[in-house]
Amino acid sequence: xxxxxxxxxxxxxxxxxxxxxxxxxxxxxxxxxxxxxxxxxxxxxxxxxxxxxxxxxxxxxxxxxxxxxxxxxxxxxxxxxxxxxxxxxxxxxxxxxxxxxxxxxxxxxxxxxxxxxxxxxxxxxxxxxxxxxxxxxxxxxxxxxxxxxxxxxxx
Length: 155
Known about the structure:
By secondary structure, this protein is α+β, with helices and mostly antiparallel strands. The chain has helices at about 40-45, 55-60, 130-145; strands at about 10, 20-25, 75-80, 85-90, 95-100, 105-115.
């Protein structure tokens, strides 16, 4: 059985009205490679101990290929931007791949950041700069280590 078929993935966000999201395929990368892998977090969801062993996982989590199990979508939300209410804010570079449930029953969203343009990208290319992504990864791990609730980057 392929690795990704063993991971329990749900898509609860798609039960919302379609005005809350757009299905978007990620823009593939030319030469994806692992920079880091959060092994303790990965093991909570059944991902392999060593991500380098799975080309399938690299290609899926980098947006280079997609499978039927993941249904990438850009989430829409509303809020104030530049001092004005904007009803059409949304994920401009990130895609929700699905939800994962940990052994304790906590549901986590699995997002792909820097996935390319979405309907909410405005004028950007939808990509993420590596240095900013690494900084975000390190800060979230530090915050988690201090007991501050935050997101948990997998890779």
